[in-house]
Amino acid sequence: MVAPVRRALVLLVLAAAALLVVVDRAVTPLTPVRAAGARVYGAAESAFGVATRVFGGDGRLRELERENAALRARLLSSGTRSAGRLSVPGGYQGVAAHVVGFGRGRSVAIDAGASAGLGRDMTVLDADGLVGKVTWAGPGTASVSLITDAGSSIGARVAGSGELGVVTGVPGAGLRLSLFDPNAPVEVGDQVVTLGSAGGRPYVAGVPIGTVTALESAPGAATRTALVRPAARLSALGLVAVIVPRPER
């Protein structure tokens, strides 16, 4: 009884995903159609998630709830404070979501959207560090561009020295840090965090980006560069949080 139900739900989710791909490629300018597709996909994913929790046992459900509660406790803040290795500025809160699929290029889909307050250019992170930014939000789902995307560009700071630079995605190599000062001190093992954007979008300040793993040598270059390993496990994402402004009272 359980197996046929699961198979039926999986087929439903796959069919909805296929519909979204067709809509996205053929009628991208038709926002209402895309939003409708997002509703279908979101509903199918929610149904599948509920069935998985029911048939997967109470143990897994409790585990997810504990993860959710722990991440919320670390992220939600009434003022600027340090939450473990994460620094969440006042005026923001974390909306928890689960990664439910992979999109085109270096992107993922999450099961939260505009109905939860999500919008374009919002920071996405997990308990380890920066994941990316929201690039599109439907009613119940959203697309997130990962920091390793080739088009990614993030203002950064080297923790400790405070040196400033830009972190970009490098296909097949992870991330590259380009420091503005070609003589800036940087060593393997240095931690790199977000510099922060105006209004906290697309990136809030102080979120771990990664760790310097190798220094690159380019005599006469205008900048100093290094390779960086992402802090977040981007190949094994599960529970994430999107940083959104707190609603005004």
UniProtKB/TrEMBL annotation:
Residues 106-243 form the Rod shape-determining protein MreC beta-barrel core domain. The keyword Nucleotide-binding does not apply. Coiled coil: none annotated. One of its GO terms (cellular component) is plasma membrane. InterPro entries: Cell/Rod_1 (IPR042177), Cell/Rod_MreC_2 (IPR042175), MreC (IPR007221), MreC_beta-barrel_core (IPR055342). It comes from the Bacteria. Keywords: Cell shape. One of its GO terms (biological process) is regulation of cell shape. Belongs to the MreC family. This is Cell shape-determining protein MreC.
